[in-house]
Amino acid sequence: xxxxxxxxxxxxxxxxxxxMPKPINFKAGADTFEKNTKEKDxxxxxxxxxxxxxFHIKTPVDLTKKQQIVITSKYSRFAxxxxxxxxxxxxxxxxxxKKSNRREKTMILVGHDERKPNEISYHxxxxxxxxxxxxxxxxxxxxxxxxxxxxxxxxxELLINYPKHKIQGPRVIVEYLQNWEDSKKGGIGRLADKLxxxxxxxxxxxxxxxxxxxRGSHVAHYLxxxxxxxxxxxxxxxxxxxxxxxxxxxxxxxxxxxxxxxxNEEKIDLGDLGMxxxxxxxxxxxxxVKELESEKKL
Length: 298
Known about the structure:
By secondary structure, this protein is of the alpha+beta class. The chain has one domain (2-297). 24% of the residues lie in helices and 32% in strands. Strand 6 (92-97) and strand 7 form a beta hairpin. The two termini are 33 Å apart. The relative contact order is 0.14.
């Protein structure tokens, strides 16, 4: 069996889309797994800002038990460092299968990189771990100002403060979010958002979550409740919006485009709109906090 892991990176009047049913947690005995401890081929793609490094290993995996899958590398760049994937048969949630129009259980693997203690990845897998539906890679920044000075590749827009939007101090950045089967599976973005809030809680910081929306993802993130941060003046982003839309508030632009698209039954085309920073509004973060608290009680 091949198991694929990948480590990486409110506007009024607009209703936040939320078609996902509330998750239900079952006790360990509620699901039956085939016990299989044979060695399996595992392929890991380790995400970093510059290059994806692929590892191939064989390791025994017992789907009925908690365990850690430890990967070491012969390559000098990673020599002596450990990549660890935590598996727990009771760690799961639900995504949405578009073909059957029903929710589908997904196992959640948690990835840790010894080189990057302030980063974590969540991998959304099939129940047999034979297929990865998607993943999210998060990084924790307790002192964004210091991180900005020390790192040359972190986007400045993700680390500065936006007091008007309650974005200040410690935060979690969504480095990378991927749905490998967007035409077949839904709800991965929502699940990633909830896990980002959970990661904040586990690290004892207020749920302040920042991310970048890249080409083709702006509308999906917006409909899920994320909102765009204002572009700085005298930047290409600011100039692009002013020139093409006569407005530099991307939230207002999208609200109008969505309204027009519903009326004319047309698909929204944002053309060459590039990367823009987004944040999770406080009310949406608190919604996930309550959902996580509710799940704890079950």
